[in-house]
Amino acid sequence: MGCAYSDITFTPAVREVQSSMGSRARYAFLDQMEERQDSLGEREIAFIEEMDHFYQATVSETGWPYAQHRGGPKGFLRVLDAKTLAFADYRGNLQYLSVGNLKVDDRISMILVDYARQVRMKIVGRTRIVEAADDPALMELLQMPGYKARVERAFIITVEGYDWNCPQHITPRYTEQEVTAMTAPLLAQLKQLKEQVAKLTAPTGTT
């Protein structure tokens, strides 16, 4: 038994390169892990539910990978259970590259990044596509309240493995909401100081 993610991604060619570069021993423990990491735990679920974007990759029938950014309101990527993720596929540029790829090869790779905390998680899984007309109840479940976009289908992802990735080289970035929260105390203090200065410099006899 070993880590499911490394079992899938550390192919013979990858292991050969690791050996030649001297890093194979660093990852050998993954082959002996008792915890497979193919079912999401509390930490993983909490992290996923905070995401407002992720990156995904699929593979076409010609063998070319296709990487795509997915974004939406925080929580649009839902955890249905410890083995299942889902999200609504909203109407976009009508290229349908990921949808077409997944019709012939259901494998998907995902990277979720929290830039502010410099944390990222990698997931590999298999995807089932459900068209909106085939399961209206599911579409309603995945639709984000107040988010005005047309849901065309849902992606249902069975998690095959995951891994927490090294934070090295993640450049910290912050959303508008995060910046607002971080600067709120400073702005409140600045307002208070301005009010104090105004009182101190007010002409004599005024209030």
What is this structure's SSE topology?
Blueprint: H1 4-9, H2 12-21, H3 24-27, H4 42-49, E1 53-59, E2 65-71, E3 78-81, E4 84-90, H5 97-104, E5 107-114, E6 119-131, H6 136-142, E7 151-165, H7 176-200
Antiparallel strand pairs: 1-2, 1-5, 3-4, 4-7, 5-6, 6-7
Structure characteristics:
single chain, 2 domains, seven-stranded antiparallel sheet, 7 strands, Pyridox_Oxase_N, Pyridoxamine 5'-phosphate oxidase family protein
Short description:
By secondary structure, the protein is an alpha+beta fold. It contains 7 helices and 7 strands.
Strands, count: 7
Total domains: 2
Under CATH, the homologous superfamily of the largest domain reads Electron Transport, Fmn-binding Protein, Chain A
In percent, how much strand structure appears in the residues? 25-35%
Strand order of the largest sheet: 2-1-5-6-7-4-3
* CATH architecture classification name of the largest domain: Roll
Distance separating the two termini: 77 Å
Largest sheet: 7 strands, antiparallel
Radius of gyration: 23 Å
CATH topology of the largest domain: Pnp Oxidase, Chain A
Helix % is 25-40%
Which oligomerization state do the chains in this entry correspond to?
single chain
Gross morphology is: extended
The topology string of helices and strands comes to HHHHEEEEHEEHEH
- Give unreliable regions as ranges: none
CATH class of the largest domain: Mainly Beta
Class inferred from helices and paired strands: alpha+beta
Quick check: average pLDDT?
94
How many helices?
7
What this model shows, in words?
The chain has helices spanning 4-9, 12-21, 24-27, 42-49, 97-104, 136-142, 176-200, and strands spanning 53-59, 65-71, 78-81, 84-90, 107-114, 119-131, 151-165. By secondary structure, the protein is of the alpha+beta class. It folds into two domains: 1-37, no CATH class; 38-183, Pnp Oxidase, Chain A. A hairpin with a 4-residue loop joins strand 5 and strand 6. The longest helix is centred in the last third of the chain and has 25 residues, at 176-200. The chain is extended, with a radius of gyration of 23 Å. The model has no long low-confidence stretch (mean pLDDT 94).
